[in-house]
Design a protein that fits this description.
seven-stranded mixed beta sheet; six-stranded parallel beta sheet; 2 domains; YIM1/Zinc_Alcohol_DH_Fams; Quinone Oxidoreductase, Chain A, domain 1; Rossmann fold; NAD(P)-dependent alcohol dehydrogenase; alpha/beta; NAD(P)-bd_dom_sf; about 25% strand; ADH-like_N; 10 helices
Length: about 325
């Protein structure tokens, strides 16, 4: 009997309901690949955007009319069950976590990944559900605050969207740096965000965090809810506005900010960094976790069979931290 795996197919761009469960032949690992039995995988806002084919200018890379790869999910954690004959970093029985990247397919029972990709040994003390989300909000926030924004101890940092996957990680990361952290969220999440390390929490429904003269050294807009022109008056003289959500409308501000004045609008795709650099960042993240200075925040855990429901929940925009399927 031929071995199979279960996965989720995206036949066309659209709402969560277009996600379709499929049964596929079990892949055999190539010479430098490992076959992983997935124990948990992330369901993220970015996954939803890819499912919808947004932003539109990304479709030449994702697929013009439908996703080129056609499978859902990127972040995962699981167990290596087979390896190629040239694999040296991993062996069957190893617990690992990582990122499927542009090959997708992490919302599944099994996957083959290259050993030199974004793949790391999972610490024994870290659960599979926590490890599965490290390559989304935690790694992205680490990259933007440490590498791109170069935030430092004593900086005044504003996190727009402090309760989500990126925001809950960003508040912890900035606080661990020694920054003075202000974060926005709804009133119901205020105490939660404060518990993560924010010294000031702003209810975005009643107060504008982007007050002229606020003099933030870094503004990290985790959701793309503002713009550089709106954030600029609230930045310090050499302040940096960071946003992981790139749209065509944001490009002129990014380009112009590099030419005029000292305030900067910065964007970069963390996922396009070389795998060895991303693995080094993940090592730093694991050190902070081991030091109890950072912890992934889990909102909901769904069965893999309920991926449609998980996507629908993420799409409400009200999740607190991360969502996984197992």
């Amino acid at each position: 009997m031929t071995a199979t795996l279960t996965a989720w197919h995206i036949p066309r761009y659209g709402r969560p309901e277009i996600l379709t469960p499929v049964t596929l032949p079990m892949p055999q690992p190539g010479p430098t690949e490992v076959l992983i039995r997935i124990h948990a995988s992330a369901v993220t806002r970015a996954d939803g955007m890819m499912r919808k084919g947004e932003p539109l200018f990304a479709r030449p890379f994702l697929g013009l009319r439908r996703p080129r790869n056609g499978l859902s999910g990127t972040g995962l954690s699981g167990e290596v069950i087979a390896v190629g004959d040239k694999v040296s970093r991993f062996a069957p029985g190893d617990m690992v976590f990582g990122e499927a990247g542009m090959r997708f397919g992490a919302n599944a029972s099994h996957i083959c990944l290259d050993e030199d990709g974004v793949l790391m040994p999972k610490p024994e003390a870290l659960s599979h559900q926590d490890a599965a989300v490290l390559c989304d909000g935690v790694l992205t926030s680490w990259y933007f605050l440490h590498t791109l924004g170069q935030a430092q101890s004593g900086d005044r940092v504003l996190i727009l969207g402090g309760a989500g996957s990126l925001g809950s990680a960003a508040v912890q990361i900035a606080a661990a740096m020694g920054a003075e952290v202000t974060a926005t969220c709804s009133a119901r999440n205020a105490s939660f965000v404060a518990s993560l390390g924010a010294t000031r929490v702003i209810d975005y429904t009643t107060e504008d965090a982007l007050q002229r003269g606020a003099a933030y050294d870094v503004i990290f807009d985790t959701l793309g809810v503002a713009s550089f022109s709106a954030a600029r008056p609230a930045l310090a003289e050499a302040g940096r506005y960071l946003c992981p959500v790139l749209t065509l409308g944001r490009l002129p501000a990014i380009l112009l900010s590099s030419l005029v004045g000292r305030k900067r609008a910065l964007f970069a795709a963390a996922g396009l960094e070389k795998p060895q650099r991303l693995r080094a960042m993940l090592s730093g993240i694991l050190t902070r976790i081991d030091q109890n200075r950072l912890a992934p925040v889990m909102d909901r855990i769904y069965p893999l069979s309920d991926l449609v429901e998980a996507h629908a929940y993420v799409e409400t925009g009200h999740k607190r931290g991360n969502v996984v399927v197992m």
